[in-house]
Amino acid sequence: QVQLVESGGGLVQPGGSLRLSCAASGFTLDYYSIGWLRQAPGKEREGVSCISSSGSTTYYADSVKGRFTISRDNAKNTVYLRMNSLKPEDTAVYYCAAAPGPVGSTCPPQGEYDYWGQGTQVTVSS
After folding, report:
1. Residues in CB range of 47: below 8 A, 6 or more apart
2. 8 A C-beta contact, residue 59 and residue 49
3. Which letter does DSSP use for residue 84 in this model?
4. Backbone phi, then psi, for 98, in 5-degree steps?
5. Helices (H), ranges, the chain
6. E strands, the chain, where?
7. Residue 41 burial (10 A CB sphere; 0-12, 13-18, 19+)
8. Among 65, 83, 92, 119, which is least packed, fewest CB within 10 Å?
C-alpha cells in the first residue's frame, strides 16, 4: 500500500525550530519529486517547498525562503523540512505529497501530486 506519513509537528514558541519528516512506504521516492504544503484555518492550502527526485533542485515560497530548508535522504526513503525562525503565521497543518517525474521551473501544481500524507500540526505560539 502506498503511503506517506508526516511526523515532527508540535507546539513551538516564535523564533523556535522544528524538523518535519515525510516517510514513504509501499514505494520508493527515488523517482518522485516531493512537495511540502500547508493549510491554515480558514485559508487555502498553499505550497511551501518542493524538491526534485535527486535533491539537486529545490524551491521555496517567498514567505519561508531563508527560514525553511527541504532535503531528502533517498536511502531512508524520507524527505525533511527544517523550519527555523518560526512565526505565528506559520501555524498550519503541514502535508507532504509526491509527484512522479521531474520538477520543472516551479513546484508542481497541487493537482499533479499523486500521493498525500495525513498531515502534521504545527502551532507557533508563545
Report:
1. 35, 36, 37, 61, 107, 110
2. yes
3. -
4. -120, 135
5. none
6. 3-7, 10-12, 18-25, 32-39, 46-51, 58-60, 68-73, 78-83, 92-100, 115-116, 120-124
7. exposed
8. 65
Comparing C-alpha atoms, which of 17, 55, 18 is closest to residue 34? 55
Q: What is the average pLDDT score of the chain?
A: 95
Q: Are 83 and 71 in contact (CB under 8 A)?
A: no
Q: How far are the Cα atoms of 34, 73, 88, 103 from residue 92, in angstroms, in the given order?
A: 18, 25, 9, 25
Distances (CA, A) of 109 to 1, 8, 38, 96, 106: 24, 25, 14, 13, 9
Kindly calculate the radius of gyration of the chain based on its CA atoms and give it in whole angstroms. Answer: 13
Adjacency order of strands within the sheet including 3-7: 3-7, 18-25, 78-83, 68-73
